[in-house]
Structures are given as C-alpha cells and as structure tokens.
C-alpha cells in the first residue's frame, strides 16, 4: 500500500513538483493470540519474547477480521506494547480482548516512526486511535 502526494511550489521561473511516496513497511515480527495458552500469557499472547526489547519501531493491533484496531510507535517496542495491555490510560483498554494479532516493524529513525504511524492510522483507518486522525 502506498500513497503519492504532490506538493507544488512556484518560483518566478518554473513550477517544481515534489513527490512523497510512503509505503507501509513489511512486519518484522507478527504474534497471534492463542486460544487456550498453556504458558504464561497476557490476554492470550505468549510470544512477546519475539519482539525486540531495545529497538524502536511501530506496532499494529488487529482483530479476528483483520481490521486495524490501533497503531503506535515506541523507542523500545516490547515494553511499550505490553504496557497497552496493563495501562489504565491506553486507548485500547476497553478493547484488549478484541486484539488477536500484533504486527511489529523495526523503524530506527524517530521521525520515520512518526510519519509511518500517522500515515497508517489514516490510510488504513485505525479504529481506536484518537490522535493524528485526519479521516472521519
């Protein structure tokens, strides 16, 4: 999925077109909820160890129908994702049971994380994001 936006600036001599092309990154890690987990779990997820603890990136929560529920970014992915399942102020606190898949993309640059998060929220119309929403 990608988007191309044209930004036009005019000078006295010519018109300049700058193309911005953003593509949703391919997930580096995907974990799914287990139906009857035998191991220690958080809301049915047992594979948090597959998510890097000390790298930054973006994460996406999906439901069983593959609808995007929430997009977030973090400097340290694993602790931030886990916090969404424990925190009383998380935007998904009332919908934690609905999450069935978590996709994680490593994105080292903080500015790129910000751009990807905003783009994905709006392009895929994330259900529970309340900030950075430009669609209605």
Automatic annotation (TrEMBL):
InterPro entries: GIY-YIG_endonuc, GIY-YIG_endonuc_sf, GIY-YIG_UvrC_Cho, UCP026568_excinuclease. SMART domains: GIYc (SM00465). Transmembrane segments: none annotated. GO terms for biological process: nucleotide-excision repair. Gene3D superfamilies: GIY-YIG endonuclease. Residues 54-130 form the GIY-YIG domain. CDD domains: GIY-YIG_UvrC_Cho. Pfam families: GIY-YIG. This is GIY-YIG catalytic domain-containing protein. It comes from Virgibacillus salinus.
